[in-house]
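Annotated sample (chain length 234).
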Amino acid sequence: MTQKDITFVADFLTEHFNEAPELYNRKGKYFNVERVGQYLKDEDDDLVSPPNTEGNQWFNFLKNSTHLKESPLLFPYYPEKSLHFVKRQMEGVIDQCLQKPSDVIGKSVHQAICMSLYRTSQSEDSTPQLFKLPFLWNDKASNIHYVLFTILENSISKIYILRRHTDTSRSVSNGILAVDFGNFLNNSINESSDSRCYSCLDAHFYDDETVTVVLKESVEQEGKERVLAQLPLS
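Output written by the structure step:
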């Protein structure tokens, strides 16, 4: 070890492990612990070496503010406690804040409708993801919820639109329907249905009356077309 190393260790021991007569009547060791480690102990006891907050700009600001000094919006400061203690205190406050909304929301949610979209095999193998692109939209003018989604496998060229009234006691016509993009971009009915077949890459509502979709040409070839289409919901 170099003399510099020895000096460093000696300074550390001198600073943190001096005898502390004022702690002799206290349970435990009679020495100041290392000042960082004390904050990490999962104990409710007071810190052996609490921080010195004198001159701290934040504390001075709070002390001089008549509005913030007793504000319930500020989390209380515990200068004598470890971070574990503060963490438990904060978790308790957060749990208390979330409990009431959780109870109210939980009691208000109920199943309005059950609709079978597809069936999968009963094997224990991992079930492939068939439900894709769920996008939600709320039309506040007509009080209708929309869900756009696609189902993979045999219907990659279709996009499904699910509609539900925000008032669950009311129903809407065509609660669910599918739009098939297969060969709707073909220039004539004489074109082969396989020559220009499109599948949906993505779909979002543009506004209450318009749906924006990104289509991909399904034929496996270079330079496959991508089409950005805006379709009227009607």
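Annotation: The CA atoms of residues 148 and 161 lie 5 Å apart.
Annotation: Strands lie at 131-139, 144-151, 158-165, 176-180, 198-207, 210-217, 226-232.
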